[in-house]
Amino acid sequence: MQSKTSSLAPALNYFPTLKPPHKTLAFHQFSVLSITFLAYASFHASRKPPSIVKSVLGPTIQSNSSSADTGWDPFNGPHGAHRLGELDLAFLSAYSIGMYFAGHVGDRIDLRLFLVFGMMCSGILTICFGLGYWFGVHLLGYFMAVQVLCGLVQSIGWPCVVAVVGNWFEKEKRGLIMGVWSSHTSVGNIIGSVVASGVLEFGWGWSFVVPGVLVILVGILVFLFLPVSPEHLGFESLVKEIQMNVEVNGIENLEGKVESEEAGLLGTENADVDTGADSLAAIGFLEAWRLPGVAPFAFCLFFSKLVSYTFLYWLPFYIRHTAVAGVHLSHKTAGNLSAIFDIGGVFGGILAGLISDMIEARAVTSIAFLLLSVPALVFYRVYGSLSMVANILLMFLSGLLVNGPYSLITTAVAADLGTQTVIRGNSRALATVTAIIDGTGSVGAALGPLLAGYISTTGWNNVFLMLIFAIFCATLFLIRIARTEIKGNLNEGKWSLYSIGTQ
């Protein structure tokens, strides 16, 4: 947790009825989930416009009408797809680099203020990109610079929201809770797709300005209402007891204890819990890398996120340039249709979290989703252009299977690894571990769209082959952990028919 020097959200000071004993622990847990959900959804909504406007900015194609797209210099030339891929690389490279530093800083300062800073800067820079439309900017350097700066400040978001949520929830059932919560990524993509596509007809600049304003407005909400940890509201001793029982003794069924104590102001100290410097000291970067499971999941996410972000940045462009039932879709229709992939991702994240909780095996769940995504991608490429119905169904299935393990690893797995017993429940390691895993994944996220920009000029079949190869690489890093999970669950009898049926 953050130290008590962290400031309490202003609205909680101005309105005492929002604090205990007027509001329970459950109320604040739901509030934290909702606010952080909106915060990261707005981040992703502001990342979506570049993929929506690709078909407007990029190389021209003959549409169904008599006119052709004109594009936007410098992205409409013969190397336009390359330039667009490089633009993605600028953002995602800065994002991945910034992620490592953001997690390190986030473990040491007020998470709420750090998150708000990132949101405000992200909103302003997203608007600045859109202003290039009205000011007639055609300099590649301008757009690259804006994307680099935007990537750096957007990297603040993820370590902060995961650390805050990790402070408020114990490890049990974290897979399901975070599976539902992690749908903010896909929900944000959907909102970004619909909003950016909806205003595209008024000029591509609006596709950036509106999501940018949205991030700023949600940032104000975060500043006013987000509590960083339970101890700031007086739930300190209860949270310590939950952490000790879950992480050390493995005791379940704490609901009765929670219900009996959460209504009061729980400020008494727990004599059995070490509250010294060890529990508050932030973990070092290299020390976090050496924690069990961090490196394998980080490199798995490298390839998993490579696949997911290739779809995030290139799917609308692919749909626009691939005839469905012999017809090329409009920019707006292609952008809206791409949201189906993210709708599948919402269900994928929830399903992966639920399954991983039921079988108590995060790596096994991730591998299953990854392997099933291979035939899904093949079918989408081969049969997705036959009809609109086939396109929608196969796109939904691909999104479900591709985003399932991505959501699971970036949320429940990262939180598990950041609060494991080997670091004695040091929750201030959570932002650092989260940043390492997602930062490594973001390197893959930067590489995927760049490669897609170059490889797409040789044919989309080659792009899909690249994605399938990345999926197989992702599974390799989890095989050892999956074997350990399987042996452990079999030895403990957790995978017997009776035990599975009673979960």
Core attributes:
mainly alpha; 503 residues; disordered N terminus; single chain; globular
User: How many extended strands?
Assistant: 0
Shape: globular
Low-confidence stretches: 1-5, 63-68, 245-280
Distance N to C terminus: 31 Å
Tally of helical segments: 23
Portion of residues in beta strands equals under 5%
Largest sheet descriptor: none
Query: If you average the pLDDT, what whole number results?
Result: 81
SS-derived structural category: mainly alpha
Helical percentage: over 70%
Please give the radius of gyration in angstroms. 23 Å
List the secondary-structure elements in sequence, H or E: HHHHHHHHHHHHHHHHHHHHHHH
Task: Give a verbal description of the structure.
55% of the residues are buried. The chain is globular. Residues 1-5, 63-68 and 245-280 have low confidence and may be disordered. The chain has helices spanning 10-14, 25-47, 49-57, 80-106, 111-134, 140-154, 157-168, 174-181, 184-198, 206-225, 236-249, 255-261, 277-280, 285-289, 294-321, 331-337, 339-359, 362-383, 388-418, 430-455, 460-476, 479-491, 497-501. The chain has 23 helices and no strands. By secondary structure, it is mainly alpha-helical. The longest helix is centred in the C-terminal third of the chain and has 31 residues, at 388-418.
